[in-house]
Structure formats: C-alpha cells, structure tokens
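User: My instructor asked us to take a sequence, write out its structure as tokens, and then describe one feature of it. I'm not sure where to start. Here is the sequence I was given:
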Amino acid sequence: MSLEFIPANAADTTMTRITPPTVGPLRRNTHTYDLIRQCIHCGFCLPTCPTYAVLGVEMDSPRGRIYQMQAVADGRLEISDEFVEHMNCCVGCRACETACPSGVQFGKLIEAAREQIQITNSAIANEEEEYTQSNTGFPSMPVTASQPSAISWPAKLLRRFFFDIMLPSRLALTVIFGGLKLYQRSGLQKLVHASGLFDIINNLPTPFKGKLSLPETLMDNARGEILPGLLPEVTPALGHRRYRVGFISGCIMDQVFRDINEASVRVLSANGCEVITPPQQGCCGALHIHGGEAERGRDLARHNIDVFEAYNCDFVIINSAGCGSTLKEYDHLLRDDPAYAERARVFTSKMKDINEFLMSIDLNRDLGEIKRTVAYHDACHLLHGQKIKQQPRQLLKSIPGLTLVDLKESDWCCGSAGVYNITNQEMGRQLLERKMNNVVETGASTIATANPGCMMQIAMGVRERGLPMEVMHPMELLDESYRVSGLYSMPARDVVVTRRQRQTLLVGVGVGLLLGAILLRRRNKK
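Assistant: Let's start with the prediction itself. The structure tokens for your sequence are:
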C-alpha cells in the first residue's frame, strides 16, 4: 500500500488517499472480503470477546476488528502499528463465531489479517533493502507515520527460527524439548536460579527481555522421555478390526504430552481401530496460520495430505483441539491450489477429533470404576472452532465412578491461545485469573480439557495457587478406566530405551554439576 497526497480544496490543504493492498487476502473481490461483508455489526459478539471484556475498547472487539479489516481492503486505512496491535491482541478463541447470528467466520478473517500484516512487513523490508542498495551513503528510507515500525533483527531471527526451523523439524523439537527436560531434571535449573544466571539472561536485550519467567513456569516439569522415539507406525486393533484410522501425533503434543498420545492410541485400539501413525508426518501448520505465516502453513498442509493419502485410512484422528481446528480447514487453506483443492477437501472430510470420533461409533463400554470428581474446560478451538461440546462430556460421564461437575464459564478462554500467553503475557494472565477463580469453585479433584496449551496454562494456575488438582486429557481418564477394567495393561517399557534415558539423564546431571561448580567458583572470586 502507499500514500498519495492530493489537493482537497482551494485553500491548498491536503488529504490522504490510501491505496488498498494489491497482494494478500485483505483485498476487494476476494473470498476474505466476502466473509467480511457478512458482518451486520449487530454487536452480539461483544459480550463473548475476552479482550473486549478486559479492555472495553471497540477496536479490540470482533466487530471493531472487522471494521478495520474492511477499511484496509477499501483503502481507507493503512496497516499501521495500531492496526497490528489490535489484530495481535485478539486471542483467536472464535467465541464470537458461536454468538454470531450471521455466521461470520471470524477465525478465517483474523488469520487473513495477520497474513496481510506479514506480507506488508516483507514488502517494506524489501523496499528498504532496495533503497539501501541504490542509495549507499544516504540516510535510510523515509517512513510514513502510518507505516508499521520495522521489526528488530532479534525478533526476525526468533520468528524465523520458531516457524521455519523449530516447528517443522522433529529433530529440532526433540533437541530443544530434550534440553528443557534435562535442564529441569538434572538440577541445572536450580543452579541457574541460585547463581543469578537466570536473571542475567532474562535482562538481555532480546524480544523477551524480562519475560522469561512465565515460559519457564509454564513449561514446569515437562513430561515424557527426554529423547522420545517415534510412536509405532502400525498399532493393531484390540480384537476385531472395525476401522483403519490415521493418527496425528502433533509437535508440542508429542514432545510434552507423549503419554497422552500413547493413551489415545491405546483407546483407539481398544475400540476396534487399527491405528496408523506415519513417521513422515509433520507439523499441521496451526501456529503458522494463526501467526500470519500462511504460506508456510500451506506447505505443511500439502505435506501432510501427501503423507496420509498413501495409507488410505477411513478417518484421520487428532487429540489436540487447536491442531484439529486447522486440520479441518485444510480445504479452505488450499482452496486456490488447483493441485490440492480437491485432495484437501477429501482429507478434511476424514478429519475427526478423537472425542467426536469415539462418540460417533459403538464405544467399547468395558470400563472400570474411577473415583474422581472432574470439571471439564472447553478448549476454544474444540468448542467454537469445531463445534464439539457434548462429546467429551458424554465420554467422561460414561466412566463408572466419575462425577462430572459444572465449571462456570467453561467456554471462556483460559488465556493460552497457542503462544498468546507468551507473546501477550499481561492479557493471558488476566484471562487465566478469571478461569482459575471459576476452577476453584468447582471443588473438583481433576480438570479435564482436550488441548495441550490449555492443559499447560491451567496447570500453571493450579501450581501457583497450590490447589490439590490434576489437569488431564479426557483420553487419559478413558485409558485409566480401560486399564482398571483389565481390558489391557500398560505396555512394558523397552529395556534399551530405559537405559538410553538413564544415560542421557546422567550426562545432563554431570553437565549441570560442572556448570554449577564453575558458577560458584566465579561467584566466590568476586
């Protein structure tokens, strides 16, 4: 987009005409623009919007954000720092979609707006580079008042690392989360805090200066093996095979909540499913698409479609709400790709959330008694994104001995929202406090929810308040019930894997002790 200054009247004053974007989704005569025009500005969405409830600002409501999107598309508003702030303040919970009488698909709109922001940022960076190359020795390219501020190089590097290296690579994820688990379990974490090194790192001039405490608290006690291997490619059905299903193991889910993936596979097997977990599968692209990196998300979508097509599954199953919402929208994501549009539609038609799938078949009722009082939190992308509300509750109610109690505002966002609780820490904290106040009132021993981000966020709230509660996935509870009934037992862990984990932990402890000794020695010298 650009700014043109044209005469307005005889007094020679000027007015600004803004040209709408020529590239990207926020343009006239596009699918996104048609979605924008569905909004009738009734305001039913306002009471359901978490950011509007906290801030009370119209531009931080769904209606206000849609108004800004249309203004950009019409050429009445430039993509500025203010526009970027209002779009990025949105948690993306999609509660407004549930409330909307006109069926506005706000999730697709906010993703389009964030994609447009990234396209604009890239265009500005390219213009600056061209200007620098052709004007060596001159000042940097002038920036209009409404143009978004340049992104710092540390922020660019961090963004590229996160989206281009870390998430798409299983190896990178394994190394990073393996390092995190070693950091926690070897004693290095305590040494880093005791020596003051954490405070030094936290105050370095990075995009997260002064904000590292929350991610560390959020990831407290990461579960699972330090270096997890792949899930079995084929897990046979327990008894007669009724279905052949693909299983998406996910990125964060497989690294932090590997035990939930294993429980999910056992539950599917117990219900007559041959479970296929392709080792070639990759990140679903959800975080990319939510963060405006839609083109990278499309590449990941194409890869997963290629992978799962080869197995000819009856259904493809996911146990993570945020990922499932994106996977079910591959057809929208690739609608303009002639080579993948139809293939994406077929893939999307097979996608099922695991709760949704189990309640659509003849559930194996050989369930054992579990004495638990459970409150269920609706993950936003399961309830509002996929319209799945009753199925998880029905599964929980089917477990003998389990008492399901109501959680007030169970459909209100907990503040996790992908990586929102890390990038927008103050707002994420306020939303968590509201959620935890309601959690306390339930008196439950267990909070169940079907999304890894929600699990980490609420578990952090539970730890900080010292509550005697567990945070679990519905599949963990169902798996426990099947094991109590004797339907199956936990598989014995492979001896070689166990030995490898112990060796890795011992190495980590050694490194931790060595670093601790060095730090203490330096401290004593001072």
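For the description part of your assignment, you could build on this observation: Confidence is low (pLDDT under 50) at residues 1-15, 492-499. Try explaining in your own words what that tells you about the chain.
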